[in-house]
């Protein structure tokens, strides 16, 4: 097992040993500013994050709701792109060689860079996993194998509408963990039905052997705790970004990064404390 794959499996093992679900925040790389990206990542770790999902800005984020779209637009307007995201991961690794970093984004920036070039650059930067929203598992066997060759986990989305064939296909190629989208539609929308999530996860686990994180619709400690009762990880994006937006709105221009980082760390730490109250079987159980 490579160092990158080791980091993901070790993070989930630590969470299981603690008897809790893992915490995975999502941020759009470069929001509120490119310079603030790495300090924000370190703050998320200090708040208790087990894995960081780092969104790669893209001009047409079809699966994202208005909150993440705004964050993406702000990042792009400041020149953030895939190369700079990889640079940010490399800088993060100079101080943190333990926390897994998963890139989440769309196919176009990777296609423009080229699969082989991207995989090598991602490995060199210290990326642990890659989730490409618009790469269906049935069509990316070669890309998944390329990532695996470089020690990077190919991670895939599952949804309430996923067919058995899709679940089985993901079960064959997924590494690291899988991301179950608990709601139909875009990020940040809808009502979370945890009973339905529990039923779907029980079915998915017959075919998918990696841990399963659940995202979409988790907006506070209570919803995070409900998801933590059935999922291996809780993924939070839109509400975290909203929290930073609120902090930035009342900050002066030279204090925006610091305000966003402090607000994110404080809010996410509250979610981590809430997850610790939901006890799950430990690794030794």
TrEMBL record:
<dbReference type="InterPro" id="IPR002028">
    <property type="entry name" value="Trp_synthase_suA"/>
</dbReference>
<keyword id="KW-0822">Tryptophan biosynthesis</keyword>
<dbReference type="GO" id="GO:0005829">
    <property type="term" value="C:cytosol"/>
</dbReference>
<dbReference type="InterPro" id="IPR011060">
    <property type="entry name" value="RibuloseP-bd_barrel"/>
</dbReference>
<comment type="similarity">
    <text>Belongs to the TrpA family.</text>
</comment>
<keyword id="KW-0028">Amino-acid biosynthesis</keyword>
<comment type="function">
    <text>The alpha subunit is responsible for the aldol cleavage of indoleglycerol phosphate to indole and glyceraldehyde 3-phosphate.</text>
</comment>
<comment type="pathway">
    <text>Amino-acid biosynthesis; L-tryptophan biosynthesis; L-tryptophan from chorismate: step 5/5.</text>
</comment>
<comment type="subunit">
    <text>Tetramer of two alpha and two beta chains.</text>
</comment>
<feature type="active site" description="Proton acceptor">
    <location>
        <position position="64"/>
    </location>
</feature>
<dbReference type="GO" id="GO:0004834">
    <property type="term" value="F:tryptophan synthase activity"/>
</dbReference>
<dbReference type="Pfam" id="PF00290">
    <property type="entry name" value="Trp_syntA"/>
</dbReference>
<feature type="active site" description="Proton acceptor">
    <location>
        <position position="53"/>
    </location>
</feature>
<protein>
    <recommendedName>
        <fullName>Tryptophan synthase alpha chain</fullName>
        <ecNumber>4.2.1.20</ecNumber>
    </recommendedName>
</protein>
<dbReference type="InterPro" id="IPR013785">
    <property type="entry name" value="Aldolase_TIM"/>
</dbReference>
<keyword id="KW-0456">Lyase</keyword>
<dbReference type="InterPro" id="IPR018204">
    <property type="entry name" value="Trp_synthase_alpha_AS"/>
</dbReference>
<keyword id="KW-0057">Aromatic amino acid biosynthesis</keyword>
